[in-house]
Amino acid sequence: MSDMTLLRIGIAVAMSLLLGAIIYFGRGRKKGQGRRVPREGTSGEARSEPSLGDQFADGWNSSPAQQEELALDGSPAQSELGKRVSEQFDRIVSLYVAAKAGNKLRGQDIVVAAEKAGLTFGHMDVFHRLVDGKPELGPIFSVANIIKPGSFEMARIAEIETPAIAFFLTLPAPVGALDAWETMEPAAQRMADLLDGVVLDEERNALGRQRVQHIRDELRAYDRQHSAPPLSKSNRW
């Protein structure tokens, strides 16, 4: 099996991490969603990060390689802004901003909130947070629609309604892992405030201080094991 085939398989497995929320949110909110539910045997234990398949299943029918060539709605990509420099990564960290029970996030409101949070619309018709002054380095994190195909089609943005949007950063990023998180998490909180939504972790539980601290600790450890450029203060939201 060639190196390119192995790489594409790895990317496919990883990108599928971004796609169980489509099914999860698409089948409706369950009673208690947004509240952390204690799990047996997890007290005091570090939680493992999910595989990409846990988050967006069956959402994008094309392969990740095809997605790099086409926008998520199947039309040619109109922008290279936010395109990753390398397809190789070893971890994804994600968050969700979800509408409150009985509500939806509306496309036009998402666009306004994204702009206020410092995001740029670009590659694959989703939003990206770029490194200030160095957009060619690729996205610090990106924001997609959890309703397939995952994109925000601007021609019909006024018609778009969704139960949630997904924030995800892939590591290694153009900045350090902790700096990337410290850019993404406040942006998610800011957009949640603007959209009257709630921030959920990768398991669709309300994002709490303990979970945030755990993620920070993990990303500090990641940074110690990987050399990464620092993020200037101007890049923080």
TrEMBL record:
Subcellular location: Cell inner membrane
CC annotations in GO: cell division site; plasma membrane
Domain ZipA C-terminal FtsZ-binding per the UniProt entry, residue ranges: 89-219
UniProt keyword annotation of Membrane present: yes
This protein's UniProt keywords: Cell cycle, Cell division, Cell inner membrane, Cell membrane, Membrane, Transmembrane, Transmembrane helix
Main subcellular localisation: membrane
InterPro entries, sorted: Cell_div_ZipA, ZipA_FtsZ-bd_C, ZipA_FtsZ-bd_C_sf
NCBIfam families, alphabetized: septum_zipA
Protein name as annotated: Cell division protein ZipA
Organism: Thermomonas carbonis
